[in-house]
Amino acid sequence: MKYVSTRGRAPELEFEDVMLAGLARDGGLYVPSSWPEFSPKQIAAMRGASYAQIAFQVMAPFVGSSISKDEFQALIDQAYAGFAHNAVAPLVQADADLWILELFHGPTLAFKDFAMQILGALMDRALTKRGARATILGATSGDTGGAAINAFAGREQIDIFILYPHGRVSDVQRRQMTTAPEQNVFNIALEGTFDDCQAVVKALFNDLEFRDSYQVSGVNSINWARIMAQIVYYFSSAVALGAPDRPVSFSVPTGNFGDIFAGFVAKKMGLPIEQLVIGTNVNDILVRTLETGIYQPQGVNATYSPSMDIQVSSNFERLMFEMAGRDAGRIVALMNDLEQTGHFKLSDNEVSPMRAQFQAVRIDETQTFETIQSVYQDNHYVIDPHSAIALAAGAKCLQKGVPMVALSTAHPAKFPSVVTKATEENVDQPARLQAQLQAQERLEILANDVSLVKEYIAGKTRVGGTAG
User: Fold this and answer.
1) Considering the domain boundaries, does residue 453 fall inside one?
2) Phi and psi, residue 131, nearest 5°
3) pTM above 0.90, yes or no
């Protein structure tokens, strides 16, 4: 399997090199040169298989020959062995045609664990094999940071630096990052928004001298391996609900567009998906883009669902590449427009197929709160605010007889303030979380300045013998 950049000016790479690179050297995002496809018979054969077995079948075409089948299956088994539910990603019925896919049974209680646990193992293996080190760099709006730190903490070949917006993540999310005692973990609280954090990370990736000097790699969903691992639970849940003999729809709480792009890929691979519903909070750039064809970031509003407080959805570039017929020159032109004018306009030929593939629904703060409240009152079931957005958006798009799967992306214990207020009940804290809430924190508060972040990383990373 070869991978190409959405901007067409970076070399084609094999899976392992794409995983270690993160962002392409031309600033683009890597995608497979072609999409593997499964027949209905192959999808039906997944029925009754374990999550780890389905994960191997779905991901193997993307990995290609870079790792043996037996070793890859062993790494997958290990990655999901620590999940707290035997099904790994269980389904819960909320209403006649409405289902909840619980993606929060991993070590940091968020869907990011599905990708991070396997990514950590794969990257560590690749670096060890090459006798190399890497400086892992990531930005987080909440959950990515904790999941990445859990997956990479203590790994000898890696130092990991996570940027998060100072004061704009929940206390639980922050502590899941800052209480890691391992000396290869560094937390940077940036004075700004998530979009500022993401911009700094991209700037450092695009500084090729810095990137090469410190062997910088990424774990955000700009890294294709993250998307690859998230495709799996679309297959596992759809098969459990009757695919391929009947179609299934999905509603996804969406900020950076990675998780729902994984659903788009699952559909390209042959999974019969009827609808892909984009659920956004009031930071609704994706709703506005599908309505108007104009992609124009605005100010970021702090909400009950901080992981979605994003106005620059990085993975949208991957979708644009597909909708533009894989015309890399067109993507370069659009991204130049965004940089120079603060917006770009999609053509009718580009936005029309997007509208055919996706529905986008904006859920405001009142609707989010009321959904948490009503789900608890009706079912005595507790959901977090991101999951509430998926449920509320999915409920607006129900089609009789077609299961709608709302992705529940985080455990409610990660957002105790709003959940307790809505349910009037204290949220149960899993044991693995309780210890983190008491541990000592380690973090560095930095101004929103690329040079300051660069200096901090250069002084801490062990790559090239620059520190320690």
Assistant:
1) no
2) 65, 35
3) yes
Q: Annotated active-site positions, please?
A: 112
The token duo for 326 is 């894989």
Q: pLDDT tens for residues 378-430?
A: 999 999 999 999 999 999 999 999 999 999 999 999 999 999 999 999 998 88
Total structural domains within the chain: 1
Q: Is the backbone peptide bond immediately before 244 cis, with ω within 30 degrees of 0?
A: yes
Establish if 411 belongs to a structural domain: yes
Report the length, in residues, of the chain: 468
Question: Residue for token digits 């191997």?
Answer: 56
Q: Which helix (H) or strand (E) holds 228?
A: helix 224-240
- For residue 33, count CB atoms less than 10 angstroms from its CB and return exposed for 0-12, middle for 13-18, buried for 19 or more: exposed
Fill in the DSSP letter of residue 410.
Answer: B
Lookup result for tokens 């079931």: 381
The answer to the question of residue 202 being in a domain is no
Distance CA 186, CA 334 (A): 35
Scan for tokens 């596992």, then name that residue. Answer: 236
Mind listing the pLDDT tens digit for each residue in 280-304? 999 999 999 999 999 999 989 999 9
**Amino acid present at 126:** A
C-alpha to C-alpha distance for 406 and 92, rounded to whole angstroms: 10
Question: Which stretches of 221-306 are DSSP H helices?
Answer: 224-240, 258-268, 285-292
